[in-house]
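A further point concerns the way the authors explain their paired sequence and structure data. Since the whole study asks how a given chain folds, the encoding of that fold should be made plain. A single example would do more here than another paragraph of explanation. An entry of this sort, consisting of the sequence and the corresponding backbone structure tokens, reads as follows:

_____
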Amino acid sequence: MKIVADENIPLVDAFFSPLAQVIRLPGRNMTAADVKEADALIVRSVTQVNSALLAGSKVKFVGTCTIGVDHLDQQYLDENAIAWSSAPGCNANSVVEYVYAALCHLNINWLPVTFGIIGCGNVGGLLYRRLKAQGVKVRCYDPNLSLAQNPDLTTLDEVLACDVISMHTPLVTAGAHPSFHLLGRTELRQLKPGAVLINCGRGPVIDNQALLDVLGERDDINVVLDVWEPEPNISLELLDKVLLGSPHIAGYSYDGKLNGTDMIYQALCKHMDKTPQASLTQLVPPLENNRLTIDDAIASQASVFQIAQSLIKQVYDIAADDARLRDLARQARSGQAHFAEGFDGLRKHYPKRREFHNYQVSLPGFSETDKQWLQVLGFNCV
């Protein structure tokens, strides 16, 4: 048996080599010839899995180690009896931590604002629950949910009137509720002065040309983009206009990627009717040097938001992601680099980012209420 897998999937050999021969290849450049003799294909979101890739191949199982499935031609897979599986929720925590890190970097205290969420599935739903646990006023737009599932559901216009809007909808191009270009010129012009718009879902959910035009008209909107239209050939003009930009890595925490690998491994074992032998507990040792510190003098005077800023920056310096992308843009403009290849290179060689729950922080002078607030973010407060 032969498995073709995206080379960027962590521990892919450790998990899958006991099942079959594993061939690792660049995900964005996979061809029909690459997968012709494969029995299973393991990908991430950069690989378009359709008839052009699979026709004439031996593939009978496709696994994507991602939440999203818009890169899979599900109709083709079903019609050709090719089993497929995704990893819903695998990197939801990673994306939520990206949102918190972005707000901390922009010095936006989310406690007193009205927070809007577009798309309340695995990622948006987790963000919603954490914000509510921290006492934040939240408004949500998701036409696929009911008020019984989320009592804070409202209209898109109401969400666009919020102080902070975070987008987590999948890319849907057909059906009753398409999300393609959900935000165009009309919607973007509705944003209030000083509004923060974050997109770490799918790039085409925002009309990127319209966003560039609106940002050319207004300088009072704060935009954070992790996803773009199109990738990897993004608009460098738009990058210049946003406050924070990154190369589609919000969900790229090491823990999130490992969760995706594990979930697809479990799914392939089930497909093959085999008992799983590998596990994250076996393959991933606990993080060493995981103690975070806050100076007692600072802790006694700082707000819980300022403490969160300090802790998050110690774990995840989101400004470094932004700096790497802008440095690549500078090199591309001077002819020293090919931007599209560099964009994928930043993803391939992304630093190992661990999630907040791997870290412990000692706050002896803090109240139990404030400790619980930080624990909602994921930190282990002792």
Notes: The chain has three domains: 2-86+253-283, 91-245, 291-381.
